[in-house]
Design brief:
about 120 residues; 3 helices; alpha+beta; two-stranded antiparallel ribbon; single chain; 3-stranded antiparallel beta sheet; 5 strands; about 25% strand
Length: about 120
C-alpha cells in the first residue's frame, strides 16, 4: 500500500494554496510544487483527464477545459494545460456520506414510518 497522498488530495492542496477557486495548471506545476518525480506525470495527467470527462466523487474540483500549448525551451514541444475549477455546491465533511441517515427506532416505533410495529411495556 502506498504512503503517498492521492492525486485528488494533492490537487486540492495545490488549489487551496493559490487561494483562487479556478485557474490554469500544468502537470509540471503540480510536480514541481510537491517535488514529484517524472514517473508521476502520467498518473497526474490521467487523473486530470478523468475529472474532465466526468465527476470524480472524492475530488472537489473538475477540469472544464484542456488546451494544448507550445513551449519554447531548448526545443519546441506541446504540453497540455488544464483549467481547474471548484465544483459547485456545498460539501460535507470527509467522513459524511450522501445517503440518508438510518431510521431511528424508538421502542418498537420506526421513526421514518408513522406506524407502530409493536409496543412493549418498559
Amino acid at each position: 500500500m502506498s504512503t503517498r497522498p492521492a492525486i485528488s488530495e494533492l490537487l486540492e492542496q495545490f488549489m487551496e494554496s493559490g487561494g483562487v477557486p479556478e485557474r490554469w495548471i500544468t502537470v509540471q506545476e503540480l510536480r514541481s510544487h510537491f517535488d514529484l518525480d517524472d514517473p508521476a506525470s502520467p498518473a497526474i495527467s490521467g487523473f486530470l483527464r478523468r475529472i474532465y470527462q466526468g465527476p470524480f466523487r472524492t475530488c472537489h474540483y473538475r477540469v472544464t477545459r484542456i488546451e494544448k500549448i507550445l513551449v519554447n525551451t531548448q526545443y519546441t514541444r506541446t504540453i497540455k494545460r488544464y483549467f481547474v475549477t471548484r465544483r459547485p455546491g456545498l460539501w460535507r465533511s470527509a467522513g459524511s456520506s450522501s445517503r440518508a441517515p438510518p431510521a431511528q427506532t424508538i421502542g418498537n416505533i420506526n421513526a421514518r414510518d408513522s406506524t407502530i410495529i409493536e409496543q412493549e411495556d418498559a
